[in-house]
Amino acid sequence: MSKFELKLPRMGESVAEATLTSWLKEVGDTIEMDEPIFEIATDKVDSEVPSEVDGVLIEKCFNVDDVVEVGQTVAIIQVGGDVEIAEPEQKDKEVETEEPVLQEMVTAAESAVMHARAQTSVAQLNGTSDRFYSPLVKNIARQEGISFDELETIAGTGKDGRVTKDDILNYVKKGESKPVERISTPERAAVQERVAVSQKLAAPEKVSTPVEEKVTAPPAPEKVAPATASTQAPTSEKPKTQVSRGDEVIPMSRMGKLIAKHMTDSVSTSAHVQSFIEVDVTNIVTWRNKIKDAFFKREGEKFTYTPIFMEAVAKALKKYPMMNISVDGDSVIKKKNINIGMAAALPDGNLIVPVIKNADQLNLLGIAKVVNDLADRSRNNALKPDEVQGGTYTVTNVGTFGSVFGTPIINQPQVGILALGAIRKIPSVIETAEGDVIAVRSKMYLSHSYDHRVVNGALGSMFAKAVADYLENWDLNREV
């Protein structure tokens, strides 16, 4: 009989902790290897943590909403033998000795001050939202005096717009947050009364100095004249939607709200401009039809059009590196690595963007393997946090749903996104040595959205043209 400690696994170089969101097993449950035990959430992604052994869950080391560091033991599983369920330890009550009246007053004052501070912190971050905030982000917000409403306005770069540690620190660094205002509370008044009593009971040199340092009353707030009609800023009210009889009100999911905020933040941040180009992909269609069966027989997986498009985008980014950038205030960050985000639709209708890291260093077979793996694990909610961050450019395939072209919204903090339209057979004019002829060709549209703050129309159009040229000049004799 032995006990196995299930620890929080490493989830990527940039992830040091996670929040335990739910337990999938209870103490006493029998567990099989690779069976999920609990769920965690980070700023980037939600995921399940499976068991590494067969056995029985005998102890939970953390509660829901606790923050767990990588490497900490989250659960204890008994492997083999009779099961002994761990009982919570009973701590003996400590008998406190009597202390002088003065010490009691000081202790009471300190306790009241701490309670008042806690109430103030809770008040600042009081609010309801389905947007996920990690405990680390919440602690930073409390320390910097960022209210809940203000926290809701911070654009997040994490999964589905989550606010990461870097996001809130950058927000504070730019001087956009305000210091916490000290609020007069009934607890603070009680503290002052206790201090007054304690000062009568003891010599000033013994207790006056430390107590005054902890409970000095805040300066009286300045009186602010009420705003007049001429000084009040105009406020725009959102139009209220009328619900008629028979209408069904469907609450948005947490992820849906995060995606909605991320999209509106992107539109308000970047000056979106689009360029469109038609591409003849007849050679690609012919080539793929020729090799797809042999590829499936050899590799055991399908060969889709996506790897071909990803390779073309990687080569275009290599040719035009100023599309592989991000904006940081008044500076432009030119990215060394080419990491292409691949927008993938989830079964519940939401969207996730796993990232193909160093796409320019992979051959076509390597890209095909990565694309299939990321797509499969996206659908099964099995992505790691590092696999949905670090993207430098994004590609979305709107043609999967029959759309001919679209105007995609940029995935911040990137400056460009390419939408792939549906491939259609259409009549087309072909130039030949004998003259122009009309033939049936397979064609599609590329829709390129880019940030006009830093990408002008020439660069945005040349980039799209580079992708198109690469696709149209496909080698029919290529091997994969």
List keywords for this structure.
single chain, 480 residues, alpha+beta, 7-stranded mixed beta sheet, 11 helices, 32% helix
The main β sheet shows up as: 7 strands, mixed
H/E element sequence:
EEEEEEEEHHHHHHHEHHEEEEEEHEEEEH
Total beta strand runs: 19
Instruction: State the end-to-end CA separation.
Output: 51 Å
Residue windows where pLDDT falls under 50 for at least 5 positions: 88-99, 120-124, 177-185, 202-217, 221-231
Structural category is: alpha+beta
Radius of gyration: 30 Å
Overall spatial form: globular
> DSSP helix count?
11
Residue share in helices? 25-40%
Give the integer mean of the pLDDT values.
80
Strand content: 15-25%
Care to describe what's here?
With 480 residues, the chain is α+β, with helices and mostly antiparallel strands. The chain contains 11 helices and 19 strands. It has helices at residues 101-124, 135-144, 148-152, 165-173, 186-201, 204-215, 254-269, 282-299, 306-319, 364-379, 457-472; strands at residues 2-7, 17-23, 30-31, 36-41, 46-50, 55-60, 67-69, 73-79, 272-280, 325-328, 331-334, 340-342, 344-345, 351-352, 355-356, 393-396, 416-420, 424-432, 435-451. The strands form 5 sheets. Strands 9, 12, 15, 16, 17, 18 and 19 form a 7-stranded mixed beta sheet that branches. It has a 4-stranded antiparallel beta sheet with strand order 1-8-6-3, with no helix packed on it. Strand 18 and strand 19 (435-451) form a beta hairpin. It is globular, with a radius of gyration of 30 Å. Mean pLDDT is 80; it is low at 88-99, 120-124, 177-185, 202-217 and 221-231.
